[in-house]
Amino acid sequence: MTTAKRTWVVQELENLKLSHKKQEERLDYLEKEIRIHNVVFFGISDDKKSYFELEEVILKIITEKLQVECDKTEVQHVRRSERRRRLSLESFTGKKKSTGTTEN
């Protein structure tokens, strides 16, 4: 292998390492952003309910037990976790509700 070709291969390897590092950083950032809006509920039996039934169970807990107003439009999806008795309310829409008052 000639010196010029070896130099080119080394430079390409360095470029690939840099690109790989940037991709890992981007993936870490995206994974963090995904988790920001997730809420996990433990100890809820899902009894093999449908997606819509699970969504209703979670919304009922939020509104009745936590006393926080929340409706279906604010939830992107609900899923069962791999772990037993764990439901995950994933991705609130992040939309703020209007309180009916304005700030000046």
What does the main sheet amount to? 3 strands, antiparallel
Order of strands, main sheet, comes to: 1-3-2
Q: Write down the overall mean pLDDT.
A: 79
How many E-type strands? 3
The gyration radius over C-alpha positions equals 23 Å
- State the distance separating the first and last CA atoms: 72 Å
Succession of helices and strands: HEHEE
- Judged by helices, strands and strand pairing, the structural class is alpha+beta
Q: List unreliable stretches of 5+ residues.
A: 99-104
* Overall helicity: 40-55%
Summed up, the helix count is: 2
Key phrases:
three-stranded antiparallel beta sheet, 47% helix, 104 residues, rod-shaped, alpha+beta, disordered C terminus
Describe this structure in words.
By secondary structure, the protein is of the alpha+beta class. It has a domain of 57 residues. Helix content is 47%, strand content 16%. It has 2 helices and 3 strands, in the order H-E-H-E-E. The chain has a 3-stranded antiparallel sheet, sandwiched between helices. Strand 2 and strand 3 form a beta hairpin. The C terminus is likely disordered. Keywords: Endonuclease, Hydrolase, Nuclease, Nucleotidyltransferase, RNA-directed DNA polymerase, Transferase. One of its GO terms (molecular function) is RNA-directed DNA polymerase activity.
Short note summarizing the structure:
The chain has 104 residues and is α+β, with helices and mostly antiparallel strands. Helices cover 47% and strands 16% of the residues. Strand 2 (75-80) and strand 3 form a beta hairpin.
